[in-house]
Amino acid sequence: MISFIVRLRFEEVDRDAIVQLLKPLTAASRQEPGCVTYIPHFVEGDHSNVLIYEQYKDEAALEFHRNTPHFAQYCIAGLYQLMKDRQLENLTAVC
After folding, report:
1. What distance in Å separates the CA atoms of residue 5 and residue 13, rounded to the nearest whole number?
2. Who is most buried in 43, 46, 48, 74, counting CB within 10 A?
3. 20 is in which domain, residue-wise?
4. What residues have CB less than 8 Å from 6, skipping those under 6 apart?
5. Which pLDDT tens digit goes with each residue over 30-44?
6. 79: Cβ–Cβ under 8 A, 6 or more apart, which residues?
């Protein structure tokens, strides 16, 4: 299992645009065969920061996700163009 958190920072004025990108990205990502969990969040009290918690069955499933048309459309051509900063935190399950 591969688990990680992506933290993205945006201008607060872009909040509605971010929501409009995250909705179809989330719906499509959750339909991928190796996607276990895909949950975007706004950080409470700070709508310029988005946290996405993602889990994939294995490395092949993650690579599949990163090569989908919806990733290209909503992440690369959408979110990545608006973001001010991006951090990736890889996670290791305790149990």
Report:
1. 23
2. 74
3. 2-86
4. 51, 52, 54, 86, 87, 88, 89
5. 999 999 999 999 999
6. 8, 18, 21, 22, 25
